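ok so I'm stuck.
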Amino acid sequence: MKLLIFILLIALILIYIYIKRNTTKKSHARRRKQSKQVLKKIRSFDSTGQKIAYLRKIDPFVFEEMILDILEEKKGISIIRNSRYTGDGGIDGRFKINNNLYLIQAKRYSKHIKAQDIKAFNKQIENEKALKGLFVHTGRTGKEVYTQLSSSKKIILLSGDKLISFLHGNFNADNLTI
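replied:
not stuck anymore, here's the structure
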């Protein structure tokens, strides 16, 4: 009897793992599809204000996928997607250019981003021995953030007009200049 209960318990655990793994893959595929639709819509808007306002309303995971999709469009960039959206330690993706590792943090905010976010991201870049990090956000950038950024040369900030330019594919993949 104990053996039967043990076998049933193992079977249930395996079924749960199988379902969870397939659900995660479907969720990623669905959000990647949505990111392409959102990107097409954003590119059709005329004003920067419209684009930023729309970005602030989309699913945060779709926003992450959209950033990765745009990078993936460029030759020479290899994307490393996370296996899940939550519990990723704040890193929303990784990519490599010429074998150099870069980290991505995407924040779909409407308010000001915090200097602590930049500080934590910088620490993560150092911990993972990445060359640089791409901090992408839809919020507002205050003076404290610029002060924090000036102490770190490893973070590339994408917001406002630079973010919109990036969404249109206007960036240099060799050095990530916009």
